[in-house]
Amino acid sequence: MAPPPPPRRASEPEPSRGRPRPEPTREIVLVIDPVDITGRMARLALASDDRDLHHCTTGQDAMVLIHQLQPDVVVAALDVADLPGLRLLQAVRQRAPRAVLLAIAGTPTVEGAVQALRAGAVDYIGRPVSPGMLSEKVARALGDVRAARQLSQAQRDSRDRHGFSQLLSRSPRMLQVFDAITAVAPTDATVLIRGETGTGKELVARALHEHSPRSSHPLIGINCGAFTETLLESELFGHEKGSFTGAIGKRQGVFEMADRGSLFLDELGETSLSVQVNLLRVLEEMAFRRVGGTEMISVDVRIIAATNVHLEEAVRSGRFREDLFYRLNVYPITLPPLRERTEDIPLLMRHFLDDAAEEYEIPAPTVPPETAALILRYRWPGNVRQLRALCERWVIQCRGAELRPDLLPAEIIGRDVSTEAPGAVYIDDSIPLDQLMERVGDQVERAYLHRLLLRHRGHLQHTAAAAGTTRRTLYTRMKKLGLDAESYK
Ligand SMILES: Nc1ncnc2c1ncn2[C@@H]1O[C@H](COP(=O)(O)OP(=O)(O)OP(=O)(O)O)[C@@H](O)[C@H]1O
Ligand SMILES: [Mg+2]
Predict the structure, then answer these.
(1) pLDDT tens column, 179-189
(2) DSSP 417-443
(3) Cys-Cys link to 261, which of 88, 217, 231, 286 (CB 3.0-4.6 A)?
(4) Ranges of each domain in the chain
(5) Within its chain, how far is the Cα of 410 from the centroid?
(6) How many Cβ atoms are within 10 Å of 411's Cβ, its own excluded?
(7) Helix, coil or strand: residue 306
(8) Per CATH, is 27-149 categorized as 3.30.450.180?
(9) What is the second-level CATH architecture of the domain 339-412?
């Protein structure tokens, strides 16, 4: 079931009339299979309180049911007499483009699987189909449906409740941030946005400006950490011709450019004490002189500042002026790190995967529960930015297939076995036992294969025979475990 929407606060307006009806939360599964035994088995395997299950045996009935039900998941057997093979998949795709499609093949073949996946199926299951397998595959498909629903719900919530179409979240702490933006945006109060790198400070600055009466005037941003002291002064306040070496012509600074709009002072914690003195004076008076100039210039600017530095700490250690801190800290907004709002991870992931899939014109990968569990457990030091970049990578890596756990970077999986001595098994006593068992499993396999590879001098066929496996499986495992046959020859 999709989770309930976050509680509404008393101060929030009622949702307006005519708003789209919330998505139905019961999931609809349709099984199209000429063998009724599968229909009955499907009922056994798939019946549950939060889903409706329908079954039919012909393509014609299926088309009528799809029209009536708009199913979320369709399990389609490719041996339906009146619409055999890919024709059934294509007909379903056409009538229910958003449904997740699973194909069942009487006689599965590699060629058939490729064609079914090309026709839009996310899975290809060969007969005989066991209830357990069917139930697992459908549960996985429904997981994707739920993620897509939550995403569209969160996009709507964010737009309808606050109008911040770019900032997605369903975490209560971020919804408080949205409330804070709504409250302070229409005023001229100085806002100090705090949060670790990649938590969305710039997006918040944009939302503040866009929801302020200044939105028809510019929002000018400056990364204060990116300039030397002299250059920063000139970037902020402008300069007169010849005021310093390299100042060829007269130039406006960002304070002038942002007149009647908003000025976003990013990475303010990185500025030198002397720049801080000047900044404080300008913020107090909203007037300044260009570098090398004499004329006093007055501006009307709303200040939005951001930092990922712990400013109180910087004040204590003398790196940041206390008076400037108080001047900026009028209305603080603190963004929680991603690891403290893990409910946002699946939502953001779905959004970034879909985004990248559209950009690269590659289908987005499905995310199995074992991969999702590792992703949720990770600390995400680079926060949303890091997640976004990885989603882009995964779309390209998977090319529409599943995001298997072994495709995750080593820092997410945990210890990188491929860099350890191949014969060694490490007992890391800083992690829980179940995680250790998982990890040690890989290490034991690696140590075992290492010994066999040594014995058979890197000969894959002989090593595979000794391990009781196929050459192909051995090759895949070796690749995953970072073993290279060449180094044993
Ligand atoms: N809630 C969110 N919904 C959607 N995208 C987000 C969200 N938060 C952050 N992002 C995306 O993550 C990336 C980083 O966000 P942003 O640049 O605002 O972070 P930041 O806090 O300013 O980071 P830094 O301190 O490193 O400058 C951007 O691509 C942004 O679009
Ligand atoms: Mg930023």
Answers:
(1) 999 999 999 99
(2) GGGS-TT-----TTS-HHHHHHHHHHH
(3) 217
(4) 27-149, 163-336, 339-412, 417-488
(5) 18
(6) 12
(7) strand
(8) no
(9) Orthogonal Bundle (1.10)
Q: Is 298 helix (H, G, I), strand (E, B) or coil?
A: strand
Q: What is the pLDDT of residue 37?
A: 62
| Ligand 1 neighbours by CB, cut-off 6 Å | 166-169, 195, 197-203, 308, 348, 384-385, 388
Ligand nearest to the CA of 206: 1
Choosing from 155, 181, 203 the residue with most ligand 1 atoms within 8 A of its CB, the one to mutate for a pocket test is: 203
- Residue to mutate, 170, 385, 390, 391, ligand 1, most ligand atoms under 8 Å from C-beta: 385
| Options 3.40.50.300, 2.120.10.30, 3.30.310.50, 3.30.70.60; CATH of 163-336 | 3.40.50.300
Give the Å distance between the CA of 386 and the centre of ligand 1. Answer: 9
**How do residues 52-61 score in pLDDT, each as one tens digit?**
888 899 999 9
* Positions of E strands within 260-330: 262-266, 287-289, 296-298, 302-307
In the reported structure, the alpha carbon of residue 203 is separated from the centroid of ligand 1 by a whole-number distance in angstroms of 6
Residue 391: name the closest of 340, 344, 343, 355 by CA.
355
Residue written as token pair 């073949």: 109
Domains 27-149 and 339-412 share a fold: no
Q: Please name the residue ranges forming H helices in 6-85.
A: 36-46, 59-69
Task: Express each pLDDT in 109-152 by its tens digit.
Answer: 888 888 888 888 888 888 888 877 888 888 888 877 777 777 76
466 burial class (0-12, 13-18, 19+ CB within 10 angstroms)? middle
pLDDT, average across residues 462-466: 93
Distance (angstroms) between ligand 1 centre and the Cα of 166 equals 10
Residue 378 pLDDT > 60: yes
